[in-house]
Amino acid sequence: MKKMKLTDVILKEVPVLSKNRPLLDALEIMNKQDLEGVCVGENGKVIGSVTYRDMLFRIGAQRLRAVAPESIYISGVMHEFPTTVSNDTSIRKAAKLMLELRSSCLPMFYGETYLGLIYKRNMLKLVQDKAIPISSVMRKNYPIVRPNDRIIHARKLILETGMPALPVINEDGRLVGMLGQGDALNALVEFQRYVPEKHQKARIRQLNVSSAMKVGCKTVEPSMQLSEAAQLMLKEKANAILVAESAKLVGMLTPDEVLEYIIGSFAEEQ
């Protein structure tokens, strides 16, 4: 495999939406295209992004629940890019920036010319030749939720920990599903759209993880090679895979662990 560069993982055809568009327009596009976020433009320039995490911070916040999702605009949720990378930025530096800034995407510019967006998940392409077991890089400590936990509790955990997804474990300790940040967000949006405001305070306590989680989640063995895991996540557009041994959950692999691996093993100039 040829030595890859950061330019090999940019996504050039990322939707760019006006900051004056409704937030739900961005969410619809992200859901349809399995994107972690979309770019925001103003006066013909790309100025920032709006991601699932940005939306989740806004949607479901107790003090803002009276505001209908339909009346929220991208401008009230988006973030300007905290930094940019160029076509000659090293892979290792980009990985460090993503982790330090807790940024799910970074824009790449050639001078003043916008080239595209680098998503965390696309960084997995850079380890498709790494023959090491995922047990050496996976996350062994992670938050979990129960099927009967409230979605608002799961939302809080996702925002506090930065996890893209949470394993759902029942009272017997058995894995029964996974709740991604997009799953939690979409459940909260539907709740706020269709439950009358006067009933929301009482009924949101009944909105449980089981109603939004994905069931039948695949697990992989700790011995799986990082190259295989990266290919699997890219193929399935997954931001997390669950690692199990003897039917017991023992770890998780997310793009953050891959970024940590890149920082620790790639040369500074690479």
UniProtKB/TrEMBL annotation:
Pfam families linked: CBS
Q: Which segments constitute the CBS domain? A: 10-67, 78-134, 138-197, 213-268
**UniProt xrefs under SUPFAM superfamilies:** CBS-domain pair
Q: Which InterPro entries match?
A: CBS_dom (IPR000644), CBS_dom_sf (IPR046342), Diverse_CBS-Domain (IPR051257)
Q: So which domain of life are we looking at?
A: Archaea
Instruction: Enumerate the CDD domains for this protein.
Output: CBS_pair_SF (cd02205)
The record's annotation in SMART domains points to: CBS
Q: Which UniProt keywords apply?
A: CBS domain
Name of the protein described by the UniProt record: CBS domain-containing protein
The species this protein belongs to is: Candidatus Methanomethylicus mesodigestus
The beginning of the lineage is: Archaea, Thermoproteota, Methanosuratincolia, Candidatus Methanomethylicales, Candidatus Methanomethylicaceae
